[in-house]
Amino acid sequence: MPVMVSFSYFLANFLIRELWQKGLRRKFWLYLFYGLVTATWFQLMAIMVFFISLAELQYKNMNPMMDDLSLLWVIQIMIATVFTVIIQLKRENQQQKAIQRLESDAFEMKMRLKELELNALKEQIHPHFLFNTLNNLYGLALEKSEKLPEALLRLSQLLDFLVYQSQKEYIPLGTELQLIQDYIALETLRFEERLESRIEISTEESQFRISPFLLFPLVENAFKHGLKPASGSTFLSVKAWMEKDSFQFEVINSLPAKPLKTKNGGLGLINLKQRLELHYPKNYQLSYRKTAEQFEVSLSIKIKENEQQPV
Q1: Are strands 284-290 and 294-302 parallel, antiparallel or unpaired?
Q2: CA-based nearest residue to 1, from 62, 36, 35, 47
Q3: Which residues on adjacent β-strands are paired with residue 195?
Q4: How far apart are CA 282 and CA 57, in angstroms?
Q5: Could you give the residue ranges of the DSSP H alpha helices within the chain?
Q6: pLDDT tens digits for 239-262?
Q7: What is the C-alpha to C-alpha distance for residues 150 and 154, in angstroms, rounded to an integer?
Q8: Hey, where are the domains in the chain?
Q9: Top-level CATH class of 145-302?
């Protein structure tokens, strides 16, 4: 009995746990063979000593039943081995399933938290965006500008985007770029002839889809922190194009001689960085360059091979 207990412990706690579960199958079978031989030898020795002691150390007087018992003990060791392996593997399988369930639950929870975080970030954009736009319209109203009706029309188009497109996870790139063009047109009304804008978009045939309001903060930032209607001649350059494996977006704007003072500065760009990390982790590049005269920002997003979809 001690031999069988010791061998079962060795099998369950060393061979299966340390070798089989770690994928060391060849070592498992080798050590299992060694263990069986060793356990059988000790068991036979124990039986032999027991019967010799009964025969008063006279081998010829030993009971012939010893041979049958020896075979029986060997069979018992084999049966114990099989049952131990089956029980341990069943336990391992149950543990593996439990781990997989936990991993699945953790993944679902992570995706749900990601979705909630993305929605929260988009909800931050909406009031921020509307606040700036309504400020622009308020300025036109104070001036009793004839451009106010056109500005209201542009605003209605922007609100249409806000209501029907912004809640989607991804939208066509062209829809986002149209939003940007409407916004630039709305802002340009305040500058009259003092803003030189250049928009170059070469993504007409692209099927690339993008998260709503992802590019918008880069253009909004140019107007809010760089361009100023009363600062003389200003310029804005917006470029969007597709490369072999990426989408490229670039915004360059002039800077006033005296920096603008704004509340909640940088909210849009901080929000943008967080959304890029959630949507395109390790698959985007966002870079800035500022001089005394201008501010440049560029964004690159990798695209799946042979697909016009975000990575």
Answers
A1: antiparallel
A2: 47
A3: 234
A4: 79
A5: 2-10, 25-54, 65-142, 148-164, 173-191, 216-225, 267-279
A6: 999 988 899 999 999 888 776 665
A7: 6
A8: 2-104, 145-302
A9: alpha beta
